[in-house]
Amino acid sequence: MDMNQYLEVFIEESKEHLQTCSEQLLVLEKNPEDLSIVNEIFRSAHTLKGMSATMGYEDLANLTHKMENVLDEIRNSQIALSPELFDVIFLAVDDLEAMVMSIAEGGDGKRNVKGVVHQLEMIEKGESPISSTIAEIAAASAVLEKEEMTAGEYDEFEWTVLQQSKDQGFNSYEISIGLREDCLLKAARVFMVFEVLEKSGEVIKSHPPVELLEEEQFDQQFTVTMVTTESVEEITKKIMKVSEVDQVVVNALDLEGLRHAPNSKEDKVAEIPEQETNNALIPTDNDDRKKQAPVKTPSSKTIRVNIERLDILMNLFEELVIDRGRLDQISSDLDNQELHETVERMSRITSDLQTIVLNMRMVPVETVFNRFPKMVRQLARDLNKKVNLEINGAETELDRTVIDEIGDPLVHLLRNAMDHGIETPEERLEKGKNEEGKILLKAYHSGNHVFIEIEDDGAGINKDRVLNKALSNGILTKETAATLTDKQIYELIFASGFSTAETISDVSGRGVGLDVVKNTIESLGGSVTIDSKENEGSIFLIQLPLTLSIISVMLVAIQNEKYAIPLSSIIETAIIKKADIMNAHNQQVIDFRGRVLPLLFLKDIFEVPISQEEEESLSVVIVRKGDKLAGLVVDSFIGQLEIVLKSLGNYLTSAFAISGATILGDGQVALIIDCNTLIH
User: Fold this and answer.
1) Do 670 and 664 form a contact (C-beta atoms < 8 A)?
2) Number of neighbours of residue 524 by Cβ within 10 angstroms
3) Which tens digit of pLDDT belongs to each residue from 245-291?
4) Among residues 46, 65, 207, 412, which one is catalytic?
């Protein structure tokens, strides 16, 4: 029987069952006497085991079986719950998630789980698990895995991809990257390296695997295999630009010499006594379920659609938007009433279609938020702190392209709140606070944006310490420091490498990694701001666009060229006289409602050829980046319209202050201005 047709269903349902396990384990930890919660976890584990065995993923089925045995003894009151036991079960769930992700990415789902299997077997025998943290167990497993698998091993799928890439003229490289010994937040630097590599080609594999890199379960070195058209020198130069990268060694791959047959590694997990291969992909009845009252479930009115089909649909619709603009232009030129009416009707229909297509791509932020409760729980254990994470607005939806990018910045901010925001229980009691700290993660819509707040009731930010550090690092002068508002002082912690920590921490650092957060969010067309009160807590507010593919812009003319400025960045437009322009610190400025506003002449920035004389008055677009404002000087305003954002590709990635391009109704290409780059 060919199981490939069920693969997508298996992957999605496996993720759902593992999410249920994670959520219910967190609930059980707070309510250990409620054994009905254990039944819920057991059912999900039992179903996952049956599905895995049916699909032929033996390692996945075997580990789930080990976890199921422990859960069965817990619900039968044969094993007492303890923090150490929860640590082990959470680690098992982490490994299961990594195995499912491996399958989803085309792998075989194999993973070295000797450490957690040994712990589960000890618990099953009634022995206490080894007193060690999840990080230590994972690190031990990583060492075992490193000993048993070298970075040069590739399965059949990976080898085929490399071979096909070679046939199409791509180079295949194995890149060894070394980080500095004093690198404080290794995961942040790994993220930046991957970002560089993915712009240059396609990453095929990493060693250690991505999930271990994200958890910083590696020494200072890691290896990445990629295919690209670029040379060894170009790749080396780009990676070395990432801060705290100490060494880069790029080797071309000999594909024939590296080819390994799939399934060549021995099974690393002990076989289970019996294999339940009669479990289908839908849950089967068992004794536990028969004891419960039957529950009538409503028929599903949803279907699963491959994301590639949605991407194709989006691309086709983007072409339709371009043609709609072209028809508008033709209609205006011909001035035909019937054509006007037809185009208006078509515009209304395509607007409705646009809403539907965009809504189809919208994904609840809970897909990102779901992993945070488990992460916060483990960090609290590692830091000896008590923290309650509250999540609001998880149903808020964002475009999939934004969802894919926002996870890592949120991880950094939550780690930052845990490590430097929330105090230890002893410190909180001394301050008259509840010994359990609180972190609120909230998402909500407002206009065409989504806002995400991370609020903690911890120590807040010490303004004096931030200022003193900025002065000692030469970031500020005393004169400039005296003019800064509180929010401007707080924003200094986003400077690259800036940190006020008195002791080095491997969890986070205010400044170490926060520069990555700011850059990532701004690359998505968003912004991040901070508000804080010392000894009361901090709030990080992230503003993001709903979608990145179709945006509203103000079209402007600069001499004979047309440019688009995103409406999300625009405050208003204005006409000013040349006589109103003043000079301050070698910068042309104007008085904008009592505020000094710098002027940026786009014709000079983009070196536009001059074809006509300037007039006595100037057209200015007032734009914003956080609390900072600037005036962009253009020649004229053309009007507002919706455009399709197109990437400039790999050849024009270095174009200054340009985020993309669009095709207008008359066939011209207009460049889209990145206001965040222009405002400092």
Assistant:
1) yes
2) 21
3) 888 888 888 776 655 444 433 333 333 333 333 333 333 344 443 34
4) 46
Which residue has 């290794």 as its token pair? 186
The dihedral sign for the CA sequence 627, 632, 638, 644: negative
Q: Of the listed 13, 68, 318, 455, which one is catalytic?
A: 68
Res. 556 pLDDT band, cuts 50 70 90: very high
The yes-or-no answer on residue 46 being catalytic is yes
CATH number at residue 664: 2.40.50.180
Helix-helix angle 337-361:307-334, to 10 degrees: 160
Which CATH number is 197's domain given? 3.30.70.1110
* 564 and 538 assigned to the same domain: no
Residues 462, 531 share a domain: yes
Does residue 80 belong to any structural domain of this protein?
A: yes
Q: What is the pLDDT of residue 511?
A: 40
CA distance linking residue 401 with residue 361, whole number of Å = 9
Q: Which of 62, 279, 416, 676 is catalytic?
A: 416
**366 an active-site residue?**
no
pLDDT digits 0-9 by tens, 61-87:
889 998 988 988 888 888 888 888 888
Domain interval for residue 211:
156-252
- Here the tokens at position 440 are 């609120």
In the chain, how many domains are there? 5
417 and 475 co-located in one domain: yes
Tell me whether residue 449 is one of the annotated catalytic residues.
Answer: no
